[in-house]
Every structure is written in C-alpha cells, then in structure tokens.
Amino acid sequence: MIKKIYTILLLSLITIAGLGQPFINEINRFKEIDKETSPPQNATLFIGSSSFTMWYDVQEQFPEHTIINRAFGGSTLEDQISYFEDVVLPYNPKQIVIYCGENDFASSDTISVKLVIQRFEELYRLIKINLPGVKVSYVSMKPSPSRWHLAKKFMAGNEAIKELLESKPNTSYISIWDEMLLDSGLPDLSFFLDDMLHMNAKGYKIWQQIIQPHLIR
After folding, report:
1. 105 domain-assigned
2. Per-residue H/E/C for 92-149
3. Which region, left, alpha or beta, applies to residue 185 given φ > 0 means left and ψ of -120 to 50 means alpha?
4. Domain for residue 193, yes or no?
5. Residue 18 covered by a domain
6. N or C: which terminus of the chain has fewer CB atoms within 10 Å of its end residue's CB?
7. pLDDT higher than 90, residue 152
8. What Cα–Cα distance (Å) separates residue 95 from each residue in 65, 82, 136, 185?
9. Could you tell me the CATH number of the domain that includes residue 170?
10. By residue range, what is the domain housing residue 103?
11. Are 136 and 162 spatial neighbours (Cβ–Cβ below 8 Å)?
12. What is the pLDDT of residues 38-79, one digit of tens each?
C-alpha cells in the first residue's frame, strides 16, 4: 500500500512538473537524439513551431546543407526564449532559420503585434549575445486558412520583423506570404492539409524554393 501511494505521488509530481514545462517531452527527445548521435557543428538550425516540426523531409529538400531541426509544435516565440539553452546553444550553428509567431497571436485575442515583436527582439538578442557570428533568417508567418481572421496581425507582424531585420547585419527576411495566396488575395487551400493550418508536400515545395537562396554554404 505504501509503495502504491508513493508511486501515485511520484506520478502526480511528474505531471505537475510537466504542466509547468509544457514542451519538456519534446525537449527531452531532442536531448536523447543528441546522446545517441552527436549533432554536427556549424550546421543550419531550424527552430520554431509545427510548420517546421512537420517538415519531415527537410534534410532531403536541402541536400547541399546540413540541417538540424529543433522546432517543436505549438510553440510560441516566448517558448523559443524559454528553451533557448536547449534548442539553440548546444548546436553552434552557422545559420538559424526561424518560423514562429503564428501561435503567439492564436494563443489569445489580447496578444498584440507590439508584444510579438518584443518577443522576437528578445529571441534575436539572445542569439546575437551567445552566437554573434551566426546568420539569422526569419520565414514570414504564412496565410493559414484556419487562422485567416488573424491575417491583419500576421501581416503587421511580418512587416515589423522585416523592418527590424533589414536594420541588422547578417540577417534575411524570407517572405512566403504572397506565394501562398490566390490571385483573389485569399489563401490557396491546395497548399494545406485538411486542418487548413499545416501544410502538405505542395506547400513545403513552395517553401523549399523560396528558402533555398537564403541558406549559406
């Protein structure tokens, strides 16, 4: 009986700890992968949310580059800051490619463009303090059909991040927004899975073509 109670308490503590660290399982998985195979240094590091997480063949799409994908689904820019020491620092990359921001806006109606930009600025600051020579590239928020009600915020956020990066050395802003729209100005549904949030192979092919010129050798 005492052993059973102890086990229940232990599981409860683990659950509580997990609630305080919502992505800890993903972070631990990255650590296990790195234990099994030491990650290459001076690679191109992809970080951000599920649009990168679900790019399962990203290495095959960029065969001339060594890609490390440490994006975790559902994450915000705030989460990238919180787990910076886990998903960025161990890899000493030559370039960091970021896709993040959508989830920030989708998490609450009260999240402003100003707040999202402040979060991006903090992430950028952390990168440059710890890895001053790294190139930072940002892939613009996409026109997700299921989040089309947030399109104005996405566009404003994209524009503000673009302006910020244009004022910084060794950076690039990668716009995928217009290429994912129809002539009508609405999202092209053929790029998306049934959830109208995540992309299919056609969508990722567009991304590959746009991102490729921004990757450094």
Report:
1. yes
2. CCCEEEEECCHHHHHHCCCCCHHHHHHHHHHHHHHHHHHCCCCEEEEECCCCCHHHHH
3. left
4. yes
5. no
6. N
7. yes
8. 11, 20, 6, 32
9. 3.40.50.1110
10. 39-214
11. no
12. 999 999 999 999 999 999 999 999 999 999 999 999 999 999
